[in-house]
Design goal:
Shape: globular
Number of helices: 19
CATH architecture of the largest domain: 3-Layer(aba) Sandwich
Distance between the termini: 61 Å
Strand order of the largest sheet: 2-1-3-4-5
Number of domains: 3
Helix content: 40-55%
Number of strands: 14
CATH class of the largest domain: Alpha Beta
CATH topology of the largest domain: Rossmann fold
Length: 501
C-alpha cells in the first residue's frame, strides 16, 4: 500500500503521527515543507501517497497552496488539513480547495488516526467530492461545536437546500445565515432578512408577500414583499416559531410551488428564493401543541444546524471579547481597551444567558464605562457577579438560577480555557474538566517543544492549590497547610519558591 504523507514543519507533530500510524500498520513518509512534497511528486519513480496530511501554516508555500497544486495533479487524493488557527476562514478555505477533512490542533491522536483510516478507505474506493471555492466572513470560534458549524457551512456551500438554524437568542443565527448565503450559488443575489416575531400579525402578511394599491386602508401604492425582494437570492425568516398559524399555510404554499399572491392581488407571482429559517424555540413541541404546522416543519427541517450557546463554548470568550473591544473602539474612534487575565477569567465563567449578543453589548459598555485602559474585574458590569468587597470566586451564573460560589480566588488558567476547581459542598460543579484541560495544555506545550513542561505545569498547579487554601483560611498558613495535608515548613517553602509572598 502507498504511504501516508505527513507534511508539517513541526517535528513533534510529524513524530507523533508517524508512530501512531506505524502502530496501526500504516506506512508513512514525512516532509518538512510543501516544496519537498512537490519535488517528490516530480520524481517519476515516486508512487505518490495514499493520503496526505498537511499543516496550513508552513514556511514558504502554505498548506492551502499545496492543496491547490495537489488537486491539480491528483484530484482524487484525500487531503486532511491541520491547523492550530481554528477559524471559519481556515475551515472554509480547506473545503474550498477540496480537502477531505479539517483537523484543528491540538487534536486527539486516536481520532486523528481514525480520520486517516477513513481517508485511506476513501482513497481505495477512489471516490472524492470536491468543495467549490468559498470566501468566508469573519466568524470566531475554536470550540468543537463551532468547528462543526464551520464544516457544515463548507459542505453546504454549493447547495440550495432549505436550512433550519436553531439556537438560543443572541447566539448568532443570522450571522450563520449570511455565511450560508455568501458561500452559495446565490451569493450574487439579494439576502433579505425578516424577524417574524417583531412585526405585528396584521402587517406580517403584507411584509412577506406585498400588497396591491388599495388592498387596505393606507395602501396608497403597490408594494413588493420580502419574497419578491429576495428573488434569485436568500430569504432569512428569523424566529419562524412565532409566525401566526394562518400565515404558516401561505408560507407552506410558497415553499411547495414557488408562487404567491400579493395582498389584494389576483395574479400569481412566481419567485425563486432559497429559504433559511431560524428559531430559538422547540418546533417539535410547538407541533405537538398545535401551534405550528407539522407539514411546514418538515418542509423547513431539511438540514438543521444547531448553534451552541456561549456557555457551551467558553474557550471562545477570550477571542470574542478582544474582537468586540476592538470593534467597539473603532466605532467610537477611541483606543481599544485591554482586558486583564483576572477579568477575563470572570467572563469565561459567566453563563451569558444572552449569549454572544450579550458579550458584544458588554464590551460596548466596558469601552465607554471602564475608567482605565486595562479592564480589571472591578470594572465589569454587575450581572457578572464580581464582589468588589469580598473578591469572591466568579459566580457561575446559570439559567436555572444556581447559587453563587463561595469566596475563593479564580484559578490560574491552563491554556485557552480556565481550570475550574471543585466548588464547595452543596455548590454546583463548574462545566470544565480540569484534568482534560491540563492534558490539553501539556499536549500543546510538548508539541511546541517547550522546555521543562513538568516543572512549569506542576508549579502552576501547586500555586492554584496554595492560593485557594490561603483564601479559605484568610492567609493563615498553618491552617492552610493542615487543610492541604502538607507540613507548615512545606507550605512556607512553596510560597517562597512560587513567588506567592
Amino acid at each position: 500500500m502507498k504511504p501516508i504523507w505527513i507534511v508539517d514543519d513541526d517535528q513533534s507533530i510529524r513524530f507523533v503521527l508517524e508512530k501512531a500510524l506505524q502502530r496501526e500498520g500504516l506506512a508513512t513518509r514525512s516532509f518538512t515543507s510543501a516544496r519537498a512534497v512537490l519535488d517528490a511528486l516530480n520524481d517519476e519513480a515516486e508512487r505518490g501517497p495514499q493520503v496526505m496530511v498537511s499543516d496550513i501554516r508552513m514556511p514558504g508555500t502554505s498548506g492551502l497552496e499545496l492543496l491547490e497544486k495537489i488537486k491539480q495533479r491528483l484530484p482524487g487524493l484525500p487531503v486532511i488539513i491541520m491547523t492550530a488557527y481554528s477559524d471559519l476562514d481556515s475551515a472554509v478555505s480547506a473545503f474550498q480547495g477540496g480537502a477531505f477533512e479539517y483537523l484543528p490542533k491540538p487534536f486527539d491522536l486516536g481520532k486523528a488516526v481514525e480520520l486517516i483510516r477513513r481517508a485511506v478507505e476513501e482513497s481505495r474506493r477512489e471516490e472524492f467530492t470536491e468543495t467549490q471555492p468559498l470566501q468566508a466572513p469573519e466568524m470566531l470560534g475554536q470550540a468543537p461545536a463551532m468547528q462543526d458549524v464551520f464544516r457544515a457551512i463548507g459542505r453546504l456551500s454549493q447547495s440550495n437546500v432549505t436550512v433550519l438554524i436553531t439556537g438560543e437568542s443572541g447566539s448568532g443565527k443570522e450571522l450563520v445565515a449570511r455565511a450560508l448565503h455568501k458561500h452559495s450559488p446565490r451569493a450574487s443575489g439579494p439576502f433579505v432578512a425578516i424577524n417574524t416575531a417583531a412585526i405585528p400579525k396584521d402587517l406580517l402578511e403584507s411584509e412577506l408577500f406585498g400588497h396591491e394599491r388599495g388592498a387596505f386602508t393606507g395602501a396608497q401604492a403597490m408594494r413588493r414583499g420580502r419574497f419578491e425582494q429576495a428573488d434569485g437570492g436568500t430569504l432569512f425568516l428569523d424566529e419562524i416559531g412565532d409566525m401566526p398559524f394562518d400565515l404558516q399555510t401561505r408560507l407552506l404554499r410558497v415553499l411547495s410551488d414557488g408562487q404567491f399572491y400579493r395582498v389584494g392581488g389576483h395574479g400569481a407571482i412566481k419567485t425563486n428564493v432559497r429559504v433559511i429559517a431560524a428559531t430559538h424555540q422547540n418546533l417539535e413541541q410547538r407541533v405537538k401543541e398545535g401551534t405550528f404546522r407539522e407539514d411546514l416543519f418538515h418542509r423547513l427541517n431539511v438540514i438543521r444546524l444547531r448553534l451552541p450557546a456561549l456557555r457551551e463554548r467558553r474557550e471562545d470568550v477570550a477571542a470574542l471579547t478582544r474582537h468586540f473591544l476592538q470593534t467597539s473602539a473603532a466605532q467610537l474612534g477611541v483606543e481599544p481597551k485591554r482586558i486583564s487575565p483576572e477579568a477575563l477569567r470572570w467572563l469565561e465563567r459567566f453563563d451569558f444567558p444572552g449569549n454572544v449578543r450579550q458579550l458584544e453589548n458588554m464590551c460596548h459598555w466596558l469601552t465607554v464605562m471602564a475608567p482605565a485602559q486595562v479592564i480589571e474585574p472591578k470594572d465589569l458590569p454587575p450581572e457578572v457577579g464580581y464582589d468588589k468587597a469580598a473578591c469572591a470566586t466568579p459566580a457561575t451564573v446559570r439559567t436555572e438560577n444556581a447559587p453563587a460560589q463561595d469566596d475563593a480566588p479564580a484559578p490560574t488558567p491552563l491554556g485557552a480555557n480556565p481550570t475550574a476547581a471543585t466548588p464547595p459542598a452543596g455548590m454546583p460543579h463548574t462545566p470544565w474538566d480540569w484534568e482534560v484541560e491540563l492534558e490539553a495544555q501539556a499536549h500543546q506545550m510538548l508539541a511546541a517543544d517547550q522546555p521543562e513542561v513538568w516543572d512549569a505545569l506542576s508549579q502552576r498547579f501547586e500555586s492554584c492549590l496554595i492560593r485557594a487554601a490561603l483564601s479559605v483560611t484568610r492567609d493563615r498558613r498553618v491552617e492552610a497547610a493542615q487543610k492541604l495535608g502538607i507540613g507548615r515548613n512545606t507550605i512556607t517553602r512553596k510560597i517562597q519558591e512560587l513567588g506567592l509572598e
